[in-house]
Amino acid sequence: MKILVCISHVPDTTAKINFTNGDTEFDTNGVQFVINPNDEFGLTRAIWFKEKQGAHVTVVNVGGADTEATIRKALAIGADEAIRVNASPTDGFFVAKQLAEVVKAGNYDVVICGKESLDYNGGMVPGMLASLLGYNFVNSCVGAEIEGTKATLVREIDGGKETLTTDLPIVIGGQKGIVEEKDLRIPNMRGIMTARTKALNVMEPVAADAKTKAVKFEKPAPKSAVKLISPDNLDELINLLHNEAKVI
Amino acid sequence: MSVLIYTEFSEGKFKKVALELASYAKKVAESLGTTVTAVAVNAGDVSALGAYGVDKVLKVTDTKLDKFNAKAYADVVKQAAQKEGAKVVILSSTTDSLYMAPIVAVGLEAGYASNVVALPVSTNPFQVKRNAFSNKGFNITELTSDVKVIALAKNSFGLVEAQGAAAAEDFAVTLNDADFNIAIQSQDKTTGKVTIADAEIVVSGGRGLKGPENWGMIEELASVLGAATACSKPVSDLDWRPHSEHVGQTGKPVAANLYIAVGISGAIQHIAGINASKVKVVINTDPEAPFFKVADYGVVGDAFQIVPELITKLKEFKANNN
């Protein structure tokens, strides 16, 4: 089993979000970057396949040289090797095109992506990649088993779960649940040391037309102050929810 | 040239998000000087769509499509868009629609923008405002492709009734075997309970509730309000409540009309996941809890006294207002 895990380099979930350059760019100043959490759940499942079933795990990121610390972290967690496609990931279709080239060149039969990145929240790369490759695709996976060329996936649906079976090759859109939070790994010193010697190959992008562009960013309007209601006056809360907010 | 929408039909009627989608598409179509066509799969009576601005409904009927299958459904939407010559295709933000949207986009060589929260900023060039950075920012995205696919964020537009009747038309689609490479083995769906995805009101509990044995009052409050129950991440990590109830940045997103947080301090990741909700109420003993900074209404005090009293008062309120 050859697994490719696609990772995004995103602001830490606690990061303050600001914009710069006339609100046309995300302000990276003072921001800590991490492996996109949805991708990290998938990466951890891939490492499980490596340890239990002998899979070979490659991680890939489309990004500039500044993402290499994030890629090294994925290697420290246990991926065997890494690829960085040297391009700015500005459009989901463009990124999917780059990843499709990597998949074809490396002949991967299992591709694991997070269902969405927590920066642009586009939620499109896994599905576009599967479509470009003609691979089977299951999104929002909270369970994944692979035996030979057969895959069994558990997908989250509105109000429950669904168990699906299909054949490789496959693109899996992962999220929390494909492994549990407690299964996530903090790289140990040995992992960090060996990560330094693992291959991180840089590939140049192929030509692909972007189909979208981010024109501008805005921050949400400042919130007006909370209205505090005394615990002795809950009738007032009901009154406000009914007559002011009109939600009950 | 019409604007095409995919309207989800379930348990004998169109989902509310489908009607919201119709309302939104009507306004988009007006600004483009065109009409709205909906495509619906195995739907019964489609007249409800006309009341929200749909001009024409393409009815696809096929037993192979009884259960959702992303690739096959994407094929349906693609063929409907091609038949109508649609330049703008709009989907909702249910799990199923978000699953198939990127497949539809590749099929139509279209650009795709998800999480759209308002009418287009401009239609030429085609620019939309979308939620990004987990509700911590907005992003104006321009779709530069000929055909555009967008997904409307849930509860971001609301329902707008229109005068009109939708003309229904049977629509035959060509499906191929490759569309059905993924087989559904089983489905495990909660029945008779409001789901977080569909809920207008969500009642959520945090670690302040001290233990799973104290969730009875959360469930009762939810039941009085016809709400779904949810929980914070620590609560699901501690296995007090099932993972399916975890809402927040790495859990389920919530875009309800009313979100009531009980005993949740309001970590930034939690807020990110629920901030698309319109009205937020916080009940917490700690007046310094960060949640009060983003809430609309707050009660500082002991949830174990406040919630039971609130339940009693809400029952009276409901009895007097029905």
UniProtKB/TrEMBL annotation, chain A:
This is Electron transfer flavoprotein subunit beta. It holds the Pfam family ETF. Keywords: Electron transport, Transport. Residues 23-212 form the Electron transfer flavoprotein alpha/beta-subunit N-terminal domain. InterPro entries: ETF_a/b_N, ETF_b, ETF_beta_N, Rossmann-like_a/b/a_fold. One of its GO terms (molecular function) is electron transfer activity. Belongs to the ETF beta-subunit/FixA family. It comes from the Bacteria. One of its GO terms (cellular component) is cytosol. It comes from Paenimyroides marinum.
UniProtKB/TrEMBL annotation, chain B:
Keywords: Electron transport, FAD, Flavoprotein, Transport. FAD binds at R207, G263, I264, S265, G266, A267, I268, Q269, H270, N284. SMART domains: ETF. InterPro entries: DHS-like_NAD/FAD-binding_dom, ETF_a/b_N, ETF_a/FixB, ETF_asu_C, Rossmann-like_a/b/a_fold. Residues 3-184 form the Electron transfer flavoprotein alpha/beta-subunit N-terminal domain. Binds 1 FAD per dimer. Its cofactor is FAD. The keyword Nuclease does not apply. One of its GO terms (biological process) is fatty acid beta-oxidation using acyl-CoA dehydrogenase. Coiled coil: none annotated. GO terms for molecular function: electron transfer activity; flavin adenine dinucleotide binding. Gene3D superfamilies: HUPs, TPP-binding domain. Belongs to the ETF alpha-subunit/FixB family. PANTHER family: ELECTRON TRANSFER FLAVOPROTEIN ALPHA, ELECTRON TRANSFER FLAVOPROTEIN SUBUNIT ALPHA, MITOCHONDRIAL. This is Electron transfer flavoprotein alpha subunit. It comes from Paenimyroides marinum. The lineage of its organism: Bacteria, Pseudomonadati, Bacteroidota, Flavobacteriia, Flavobacteriales.
